[in-house]
Each structure stands twice: as C-alpha cells, then as structure tokens.
Amino acid sequence: MTRDLHNGMLSSAGHAEFGLRERVKELTCLYGIMEAAVRPGTALEELLNNIVNLLPPAMQHPEIAVGRLNLDQHSYTTKNFRESPLQLAADIIVSGRRRGNVEVAYLEEKPGIESGIFLKEEQSLIAAVANHVALIVERRQAESDRSRLQHQLQHADRLATIGQLAAGVAHELNEPLANILGFAQLAKKSPGLAAQTEQDIAKIVASALHAREVIRKLLTFARQMPPTKTQIQLNKVVEDGLYFLESRCIKQGVRLICRLSPDLPDITADATQLQQVLVNLMVNALHAMPNGGRLTVTTLAGDSHVLLGVEDTGIGMTEEVKSKLFTPFFTTKDVGQGTGLGLAVVHGIVTSHGGAIHVESETGQGTRFEIKLPLMEAEEI
Ligand SMILES: Nc1ncnc2c1ncn2[C@@H]1O[C@H](COP(=O)(O)OP(=O)(O)OP(=O)(O)O)[C@@H](O)[C@H]1O
Ligand SMILES: [Mg+2]
Q: Could you give the maximum distance between any two Cα atoms of the chain, in Å?
C-alpha cells in the first residue's frame, strides 16, 4: 500500500493505485473461476477445490486470508483454514434453494484490522463467486441429467430394436415349429412303433415344447402377448406366487420375509403376467443365494402407483451385468441353467403395464428389484 510518509494517509495517487491493485486481484479471481469452469474433464470436487484456493489471493491481506466453500454435505477449504470471527460469507443458491455458502476469513488480528474490515468490493466479489458456483452446479446437474436421460433412451431404444427382431424371428419359427410338434405327436400315435422310435419321437416333442416356450417368452418381451387387464389386488398375486416358492426357499435355507402393505389400492393389470414377474424375480434371487440368505418381498402404495420390491442378500451384480440385464438371452448361468429370458419377460410385462423397473445391486451384498406399476390403466407406450 502506498502511504504518504508525513501524515500516514493515502495520497490520492496512492488511493488510485491501491484501488486498481485490488480490482486486478478480484478480476484475476473471477477470471480464474471461469477458466477452471470451462476446462473440460474437471470433476466438480476438483473444480471447487480450485475455486476456494483462488479466494485468499483476491483479498486485501492474502497472507492471513483463508477460504471455505460448503456445498451440500461437503466442505472444500484452503490448506490452513480455521474458523475466525473476521469472516465474510455469501450463500450459494441453486434453483431457488440454498445449497451452501462461500466464506473467506482473516486468521489474525492485524493492526487496523477489525470487523467490518472487508471492503465493499470484497463483499461483492464473494457474492459473485457464490453466484458463479451456483451456476456451475446448475450446469453440471443439467449435463448429468441429460446424459442419464440419453443413456436411458438409448437403452430403451436398443431393447425395442431387439424386441422387434426377436418378435420377427419368433413369428417365423412359430409355424414350422407347430408342424414339427403336430407331426411328431401324430407319428407317436402310429401303431407298431419300435420302442426306440417312440423314445426318439418323445424327445422331438419335448424339444419342440421347449422351443415353443422360448418363443412365447420372446413374444412377451416384445410385448406381442397383450395383457388381459382386470382390476386386481397385487397382494393377492404376491400371496399366490409365494405359495409356489415357499418350499423351495426352505429347502435352500433362505428366510422368506413378506411385508405386504395392508391398504394397497387395486390396479388394472394382468394377474397371470404379474405372477410371472414375481416368480422370475424370486427365482433369480434364489439362484443368487445358493448358500442361503434372506429374501424380502414387499408391496407399498404410492400416490399414483404401487410398488413391488424383491430383495435378496445374494451374490449381487457387477456394473457390466447390470447394464445387460434385460437383453434377451443374456445370462451368466451355465447352459441348461438359464435361458437369459427371465428379466426380458419381466421387462416386457412391466412396460406393457406402463410401469418401470429400478435395480440396485452391490457385488457380495445383494440385489433389490423394484417394480412400479401405475394405478390407472396404462396407456400403450
Ligand atoms: N437377484 C439377482 N442377483 C444376482 N444376479 C442376478 C439377479 N437377477 C438376475 N441376475 C443376473 O442377470 C442375468 C439375467 O437374468 P434372467 O432372469 O434374465 O436370466 P437367467 O436367470 O440367467 O435365465 P432364465 O431366467 O431365463 O432362466 C442372470 O444370469 C444373472 O447373472
Ligand atoms: Mg432368471
């Protein structure tokens, strides 16, 4: 600071120079923030750390200035940060909601430093920094929302394309398969067949029936098996489904926990198809717990929907498995153990009911599937 040696006051030239230097420091800080914000590939945490370190140099006494930036549950501080009564702060408001604040503080009392020491310009600077941070947070959120949405759309698109392809193939195969099955059953009735021939024909029939089942599943996935919807009670569907699987749970050392909401409204849905959803999810859960565990089935009422939850304490899934879950024929099971159509069928049924599937899974911890079904009759999507 330039001072007049005779009276200790700033000369007017000194005033101008001091003011200019302070402005340059503030502009450098704001420029630094903008530069950091547009640098591609910087994580938000790194960016906020950079910003907080730009604060002290912008202050009148950088050598004793410290900074802290609070955002949601996180704090970003300069290295030597300590709370101090000499502090200046501004709120970070994102979309009308306070998400945190930006603080600067002076660590020690200097001669001539007291509260109210901060310049008016410094107050505006901190407010401007808080505004910038709010804008950055808002933009980052919009970007991540957009990319998540895009990812979901791509996934839905891919599944729809596979669905069309699968349905085409399934229809093409249906007719020859019906012929194979019909003629094999006819041949089986021929008098005087050798025992071996009879056995062979029985194998043809069994294989054709298996193929027919695969085709049926593919058509359900492709939503070409339209549901027959009536007013139903989801709890009843669950109770009926559990009845089939209870003994299998016991045999496998799996504890079955059932939490059904007592005041669940009726929904318009196909009971048989929903039972298929439950059974497919429960069978997967049982497969994931070969050494026992806990299987929890829940129902819950929401405002405009009901929820069906199936949760296990099994092996869980990797991110890669999770990303391929609903694709037909995707399986991690051995040949003969799984066709990879269970979840494709679940997807087809839930989508044709206008519902949604949410999956959470942690390897070694377990998996939770949540099916959301609308109360009102689903419009065709
Ligand atoms: N609860 C779960 N825990 C861990 N992995 C799971 C779970 N549910 C599904 N998976 C994984 O997703 C894959 C696909 O499941 P999906 O039900 O579609 O086919 P599948 O069970 O392999 O065969 P299918 O159901 O046709 O007999 C499974 O092979 C498994 O890797
Ligand atoms: Mg399965």
A: 131
